[in-house]
């Protein structure tokens, strides 16, 4: 029972980290901080604009695999991995 | 592909749609707020020579005079444009410009040309261009 509780708590922690990164990258970098970030150039593009157009999507895709990797590690730790 | 990857791939599009809708609401809200932006001359300004560009980030307007008709041409459609001619005593006369062929062009007959030609070398001008509650303002000088 305690094992299940711990597994679920760590799972929720991962989800909140993912949601926080999702919010910071999409709303934070793409909207709220777009003007200061636009002062920085990345390959000729303004950084705020780049995050709004491409950077956030790259981060979302990376988050998918990071979350999956972390969950697999968690599964192993709690001996509930897929066979 | 294990269950966690499948779940993350399934959830991601929903988050993207929520992000898209949230951004849309945020930008619409922001656009409706009255905000002031300062326009700065982009290079030397010669209104009579039809060469005077003011800019603020992506937004640019070109102020020019053609035979007594003062024209403002902008990169984004405007809701209104007011031009002020300022004399040497800092007294200004306001001219509300009318929409030309589309909201990118605003114009009005003004005494700018006569005043400018009568002035020694430069004419002081002010402009207020309104877009969705946002006001782009500038005080600038046109050289002869």
Features:
heterodimer, A: 83 residues, mainly alpha, 3 helices, B: alpha+beta, Immunoglobulin-like, 2 domains, 6-stranded antiparallel β-sheet, 5-stranded mixed β-sheet, 2 helices
Can you put this structure into words, describing what you see?
Chain B: Keywords: Membrane, Transmembrane, Transmembrane helix. Chain B: The chain crosses the membrane at residues 7-27. Chain A: Residues 5-81 form the Sodium symporter small subunit domain. The complex is a heterodimer of chains A (83) and B (144). Chain A has 83 residues and is mainly alpha-helical. Chain A has helices at residues 2-32, 34-38, 47-77, and strands at residues 41-42, 45-46. Chain A has a two-stranded antiparallel sheet. In chain A, helix 1 (2-32) runs antiparallel to helix 3 (47-77). The longest helix of chain A is centred in the first third of the chain and has 31 residues, at 2-32. Chain B has 144 residues and is α+β, with helices and mostly antiparallel strands. Chain B folds into two domains: 1-32; 35-143, Immunoglobulin-like, CATH 2.60.40. Chain B has helices at 3-32, 112-118, and strands at residues 35-38, 40-41, 53-56, 59-66, 69-74, 80-86, 92-96, 98-99, 105-109, 122-131, 134-143. The mean pLDDT of chain B is 90.
Mean pLDDT of chain B: 90
Please tell me the total number of domains of chain B.
Answer: 2
Number of helices of chain A: 3
The helix/strand class of chain B is alpha+beta
Number of strands of chain B: 11
The helix/strand order of chain B is HEEEEEEEEEHEE
Round the Cα radius of gyration of chain B to an integer and report it: 22 Å
**Helical proportion of chain B?**
25-40%
Shape of chain B: elongated
Fraction of residues in β-strands of chain B:
35-45%
Domain Sodium symporter small subunit (chain A): 5-81
InterPro entries (chain A): Na_symporter_ssu
Transmembrane segments (chain A): 12-35, 47-67
Organism (chain A): Aliikangiella coralliicola
């Amino acid at each position: 029972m305690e094992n299940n509780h711990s597994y679920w708590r760590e799972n929720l922690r991962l989800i909140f980290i993912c949601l926080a990164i999702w919010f910071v990258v999409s709303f934070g970098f793409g909207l709220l901080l777009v003007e200061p970030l636009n002062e920085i150039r990345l390959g000729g593009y303004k950084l705020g604009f780049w995050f709004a157009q491409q950077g956030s999507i790259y981060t979302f895709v990376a988050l998918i695999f990071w979350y999956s990797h972390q969950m697999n590690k968690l599964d192993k730790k709690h001996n509930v991995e897929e066979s | 592909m294990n269950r966690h990857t499948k779940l993350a791939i399934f959830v991601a599009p929903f988050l993207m749609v929520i992000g898209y809708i949230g951004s849309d609401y945020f930008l619409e809200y922001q656009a409706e707020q009255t905000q002031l932006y300062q326009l700065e001359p982009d290079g030397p300004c010669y209104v009579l020579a039809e060469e005077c560009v003011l800019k603020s980030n992506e937004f640019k307007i070109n102020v020019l005079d053609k035979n007594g008709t003062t024209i403002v041409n902008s990169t984004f459609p405007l809701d209104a444009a007011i031009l002020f001619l300022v004399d040497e005593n800092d007294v200004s006369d306001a001219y509300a410009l009318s929409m030309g062929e589309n909201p990118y062009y605003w114009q009005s007959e003004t005494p700018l040309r006569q005043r400018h030609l009568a002035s020694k070398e430069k004419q002081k001008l002010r402009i207020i261009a309104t877009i969705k509650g946002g006001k782009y303002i500038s005080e600038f000088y046109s050289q002869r």
